[in-house]
Amino acid sequence: MTATDEFERRLCNVEERTTAALVLAREVDKDVSVYTERLLAQTKVIEALRETQVEQGKQLNLLETKVDKGFARMDEKFAEIDANFTQIDANFAKVQEQFAIQAMGQAKITELLDQLIDKDK
Question: What's the superkingdom here (predicted)?
Fold first, then answer.
């Protein structure tokens, strides 16, 4: 084998390896492209989820505000009801006083009637 033959053999070997390396590089480039696409798609999904969460957070804040206002109104109404019951209790006390006065009047009338009946006997 001459030096030229050896050189050609080695050159062919280098060309084969270079071709194989180029094929592998293309495959790696395709893989990187696929992974890049997947990463971009996942990033878009995460960004969409974040937007959804921000929107839902705003909606929850509005709902919380409405609920707080509703409970505040309920507290006001219960305070009014308590005040009304206080007035009702006061009115019942007046009615009871009137019944007591009425009962004393009836007792006096009964006593006077009994005295008249006793005189007529």
Answer: Bacteria
Q: Would residue 12 count as lying in a domain?
A: yes
The C-alpha atoms of residue 29 and residue 41 are separated, in whole angstroms, by 18
Total-model pTM? 0.50
Classify residue 92: in a domain, yes or no: no
- Containing domain of residue 8, as a range? 1-87
Distance, in Å, from the CA atom of 39 to the CA atom of 18, rounded to the nearest integer, reads 31
Please name the residues in contact with 9: beta carbons below 8 A apart, sequence gap of 6 or more: 1
> Token match 């109104």: residue?
73
Integer Cα distance of 90 and 97 in angstroms: 11
Which tokens belong to 53? 């969460």
